[in-house]
Amino acid sequence: MGWVADGLDSIRSFQIRHVLTQIVSLGMIVTSALIIWKGLTCVTGSQSPVVVVLSESMEPGFKRGDILFLQMNKDPIRAGEIVVFNVDGREIPIVHRVIKVHERHDTGEIQVLTKGDNNFDDDRLLYAHGQLWLEQHHIMGRAVGFLPYLGWVTIIMTEKPIVKFLLIGALGLLIITAKE
Amino acid sequence: MHSFGYRANAVVTFAVTILAVMCGMASLSDNFNSPSPTADVKVLNINWFQKQPNGNDEVSLTLNISADLSSLFTWNTKQVFVFLAAEYETPQNALNQVSLWDGIIQSKEHAKFWIHTTNKYRFTDQGNNLRGKDFNLTLHWHIMPKTGKMFADKIVMTGYSLPEEYR
C-alpha cells in the first residue's frame, strides 16, 4: 500500500509544477507586453502612443481601422498638425487637424481650433459647452506615422465583445492542452 | 514539432515580420525624395472687411492660388493635404495662423493646379487688429503616406496687406 501512496504523491507534485510553470510563463508574457507599452509611452512622450481611427471624419486620409503613431513634445502646436485631443466629458479621443492657432505674446499660451478633413464644420460643436478653443493641455499628441488596416482587430473586439471572449477562451484552451 | 499548429505559427510569424519590414522600407524610401514644389498666390479682391458684433475683425478675400506639388508624390504617397494659411502678428498675440482654404490632392496628375476661390474658412481675428495689417500667406502641405512617416512642409509668401479702413 505504501508504493500506491508514493505514486499518487509524485503524480500530484508533477502536475502542480507543470501548472505553476505555465502560470509564470503567462505572467511573463503579460508583463513583457506591459513593459513594451509603458516604454513606448516614455519614448514618445504621449500617454497613448498608438491610437486606432474610429470615425470617418478624416477620410480619405485616415479610414476607420487605421493605426496612428503619436508623439508629444514641448514644441508649440502649429496649423496643419494632426492632433489627438480629449474633450472634457467624452472618453473617446478625437483625431483632427488644427486649422487656426493664436499664440499669446506674454504667456506663450496657445488657443487652437480643429476640424476633421472630411467634416464640413469645424469642431466647435464637439468642444465642451461654451468652449471656443483648445489649449495645449487638451492635446495628447501629434500624429507622426500611420499604418493602414491594423486597428480593425481592436474595433471588432470593442464592438462585438463575443469575439474577445471567444479569443480568450481559445487561448486558454490552447495553454491548458499544450504539452510542452 | 511538425504538427499543423507549429507550422501555421511559424508561417504567420514570418509573414507578419516580412510585412513589417516592407512597411518600414517603404517609409524609408520616402526620405530619398527631394521635392521642389512651387506656389503663387494672388489676392484678387477684398470682398468685405467688417468688425463683427462680438468685437472681432473679419475679412472676406477672393484668391487665386496656383501651385505645382507634383514633385512631392512618391509611390508610397496616398494623398497630399494642402492648405493656405494667413499668418500675422498682433499686439496681443505673437502668432496667429488662420487657415483660409484647404484641398486634398489624391494623385500626381492633379498636383499641378490653379484655383480661383473665396476663402473657404472665415478669416477672423481675436480682436480688431486687422486694419492695415501686413500678413504672410503660407501654403502648407502634409504628405500622407500609404504606410509610415508623414511629412509636412510649407512655402511662405510675404507682402500681403489688408486695407486701412473697413469696407
Automatic annotation (TrEMBL), chain A:
Q: How does it sit in the membrane?
A: Single-pass type II membrane protein
User: Which family is this sequence assigned to?
Assistant: Belongs to the peptidase S26B family.
A single BP term in Gene Ontology? signal peptide processing
Principal subcellular localisation of the protein: endoplasmic reticulum
Q: Which GO terms describe its cellular component?
A: signal peptidase complex
Identify a single GO molecular function assigned to this protein: signal peptidase activity
**What function does this protein fulfil?**
Catalytic component of the signal peptidase complex (SPC) which catalyzes the cleavage of N-terminal signal sequences from nascent proteins as they are translocated into the lumen of the endoplasmic reticulum. Specifically cleaves N-terminal signal peptides that contain a hydrophobic alpha-helix (h-region) shorter than 18-20 amino acids.
Question: Does the record bear Glycosyltransferase in its keywords?
Answer: no
Show the stretches that span the lipid bilayer.
Answer: 20-37, 162-178
Provide the reaction this enzyme catalyses: Cleavage of hydrophobic, N-terminal signal or leader sequences from secreted and periplasmic proteins
Q: Where in the cell is it found?
A: Endoplasmic reticulum membrane
Q: Which InterPro entries match?
A: LexA/Signal_pep-like_sf, Peptidase_S24_S26A/B/C, Peptidase_S26B
EC numbers, comma separated: 3.4.21.89
Classification of source organism: Eukaryota, Viridiplantae, Streptophyta, Embryophyta, Tracheophyta
What's the protein here called? Signal peptidase complex catalytic subunit SEC11
> What Pfam families does its record include?
Peptidase_S24
Which ranges carry the Peptidase S24/S26A/S26B/S26C domain?
A: 39-114
Q: Which keywords fit this entry according to its UniProt record?
A: Hydrolase, Membrane, Protease, Signal-anchor, Transmembrane, Transmembrane helix
Source organism per UniProt: Ensete ventricosum
Record carries keyword Transmembrane helix: yes
Automatic annotation (TrEMBL), chain B:
Choose one Gene Ontology CC annotation of this protein and give it: signal peptidase complex
**Broad class of the protein's primary localization:** endoplasmic reticulum
Record key words, sorted: Endoplasmic reticulum, Membrane, Signal-anchor, Transmembrane, Transmembrane helix
Q: Which InterPro entries match?
A: SPC3
Gene Ontology biological-process entries = protein targeting to ER; signal peptide processing
> Topology with regard to the membrane?
Single-pass type II membrane protein
**Superkingdom of the organism of origin:** Eukaryota
Asked whether the UniProt record includes Transmembrane helix among its keywords, one would answer: yes
Cell location: Endoplasmic reticulum membrane
Q: Does the keyword Transmembrane apply?
A: yes
Q: In which family does this protein belong, per the annotation?
A: Belongs to the SPCS3 family.
Function comment: Essential component of the signal peptidase complex (SPC) which catalyzes the cleavage of N-terminal signal sequences from nascent proteins as they are translocated into the lumen of the endoplasmic reticulum. Essential for the SPC catalytic activity, possibly by stabilizing and positioning the active center of the complex close to the lumenal surface.
Name recorded for this polypeptide: Signal peptidase complex subunit 3
